[in-house]
Design goal:
124 residues, mainly beta, six-stranded mixed sheet, four-stranded antiparallel sheet
């Protein structure tokens, strides 16, 4: 049973920082592309960032590039999203889905397993 548990969300002021964590268990981890996606209230779920199994390759949505950093610690089966310079438009539920053994993970449809998400709220 694959389990993905997001944590670290909360309420922050615009311009602040937050680090999200994703604890994975079950199945494989180090060989899988992992990603961060988010869904704002009333909006479609969207891609934020992805990282290859080894961590050698990363990909960011335009909205995240330069502000967010995705990373992973395969020894701990954990992935992170460091979010800096947060904006109110970053407010959403953040998910850390797991994809397959290859691919960039650029699209929401690329991911097979999902957790419950963690709420990030950025105030003005």
């Amino acid at each position: 049973q694959v389990q993905l548990v997001e944590s670290g969300g909360g309420l922050v002021q615009a311009g602040g920082s937050l680090r999200l964590s994703c604890a994975a268990s079950g199945g494989t981890f180090s060989t899988n592309t992992m990603g961060w996606c988010r869904q704002a209230l009333g909006k479609e779920r969207e891609f934020v960032a992805s990282i290859s199994g080894s961590g050698a390759s990363t990909l960011y949505a335009d909205s995240a590039k330069g502000r967010f950093t995705i990373s992973r610690d395969n020894a701990k089966s954990t992935m992170y999203l460091q979010m800096n310079s947060l904006k109110p438009e970053d407010t959403a539920i953040y998910y850390c889905p797991k994809g397959g053994l290859g691919g960039a993970g650029r699209y929401v449809r690329d991911y097979r397993y999902w957790g419950q998400g963690t709420q990030v709220t950025v105030s003005s």
